[in-house]
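Worked example (supplementary).
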Amino acid sequence: MSRKYRPAEPPAEVVGSELDLQSCKADDFVRIVRNNNQRGLSRVLSMVENGHPLASSILHSLFDPERLCLTIGITGPPGAGKSTLTNRLISYYRRHGNKVGVIAVDPSSPFSGGALLGDRVRMQEHASDPGVFIRSMANRGHLGGLSGTTRDALEILAAASYNPVLIETMGVGQAEVEIASLADITLLVLVPGLGDDVQTMKAGIMEIGDIIVLNKADRPGIEQLELSVNASLELIPDPAARPPVIRCSAQTGEGIEELADAIGSCTASGTGRKEIALRRTALVLNSIIREKGRELARTLIIDRYGSIEEAIESILAGETTPYRIGEILSGFLKNKRENENECKRD
Amino acid sequence: MSRKYRPAEPPAEVVGSELDLQSCKADDFVRIVRNNNQRGLSRVLSMVENGHPLASSILHSLFDPERLCLTIGITGPPGAGKSTLTNRLISYYRRHGNKVGVIAVDPSSPFSGGALLGDRVRMQEHASDPGVFIRSMANRGHLGGLSGTTRDALEILAAASYNPVLIETMGVGQAEVEIASLADITLLVLVPGLGDDVQTMKAGIMEIGDIIVLNKADRPGIEQLELSVNASLELIPDPAARPPVIRCSAQTGEGIEELADAIGSCTASGTGRKEIALRRTALVLNSIIREKGRELARTLIIDRYGSIEEAIESILAGETTPYRIGEILSGFLKNKRENENECKRD
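After joint prediction of all chains, the assembly is encoded as:
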């Protein structure tokens, strides 16, 4: 018997590669995740992506605000070398005995498989390592969207004891920006020659990065890039609030130790365990408010008009407007309370 | 008496610079907007920004899905020359007799006043022209957020007969991406030397631009930029679906006519009046679903826990999880229906 499975928890034990995941209940999946059965983990992540009826129960059981799992967002323009950097960080944390999770939502990333040039070679390096779990996210299908799925995948990987979890995104779409906000620490990866205009820096740096990584530091133009980054950071009045700027070369590995140190002191100098739990909880709750709120509003409109399309028809026919529908949605809770009170009075 | 005011509508008439806007009702504000009283218009836009109780009524009265108002989003990295281009387009449409509205939500734009270098000179050019109305948006305060405010400002400017309305944004934050999606046509402005990497192009072009504007076409590097843009566009399988690429120089005015023609044929060749009304209505309704849904979900949580903060406390205390709260929100409508049925049965 593999030492990976605890005898006290039979269902997880019997769910090996030979057994049927179809017959599992929510509790079984919870155990599968906690025991880091990789095949089962993949299945649970797919269930979450596809909005499976058990997904919410599983997530409820796995959620633990006090769990320490460092989530590191890695963002920046395509071509900045995010994937190579991700690879270096995986190796670094593996050497230090950590199990590393990776969620890739960058369409240009070789991890998420979106690279049009098929640059998948680097992925192989860690594919056979059982201490590394890489998941690509592309499903925008169900209501929570890409950011809802990423939020849930993060909880699941954390529950399976992956720590840190790296989230690779590209700051282009709305979903990607939401996803970046899920991370504890965000690395903004920049390279010489790729939009190193002072103003580009201003926009990116102040909004996104906790640590600015100047990658490909062996390239010409690195001095200029660092100068303009620092010039932008000087616009942040409090020097202590300015993010550290780390030069590295993901290609050669130079500077990766310094980067890992910066990540470490970012967490250490920052907030305590309670504050992290508070922040994580608020993030997840806000994300769920967004997702379920949208579901509620749609359902109420469908209740009244039959479908969203019919509501739109009604607007086009001049019978109502989106603003009137907005008022009805706002008034709904008021009416609900009044109805309840009337119901009680009857 | 100014010919601007119609005698048949007394309240709008009396609301001049000397009169008190405080005493106006929703209908008065509707007339003020329709008559394009600029001081009143500013007031109504502020009411919308601040979530004034009358705002929703005013917007309901002003909404007209069939109104023809071309909304042109202008987006791109800071330094791409968006503001200079906006100025050129204002001049172009003014020469053709249009009243032009501008909503600036780009923090680096001189219109929105966010330019750290104080590049406000260009704004003066049109400030005294009564046929141009420029509004900067910065208020992220109320629930609808920046994109809700922009959506509403757009309706108001359209109702005041501004056509086209230019929306200047920078594709960085979540709100900015949402805002860009409100426009009928989006111009993605690129310049040589600013992130003209093939992959940056891929990301930006395919997601955002209906027309790709290569600004500062007199600069070195323009050939390379155009080559890499075209190479990226070739990834779109259907040649007819590829956005046109227009070279121009906002500084000298060269290419602006061609750009305006491209905008014109984009609208003409595209969809009919009905399709525009349908698209506009769906956009506004979706935006309201997002805004009101969030409000609904928050209210339900507050009903149950007292406040969002208390819900978070309860999660931190291990009494519930965000996922359980999500299930409660989902179950709410089901319960509501059951309660209503029980109420009827009583």
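Two points are worth noting when inspecting this output. The beta strands of chain B are 71-75, 100-104, 132-136, 165-168, 185-190, 211-214, 245-247. Chain B touches chain A through 75 residues (CB under 8 Å).
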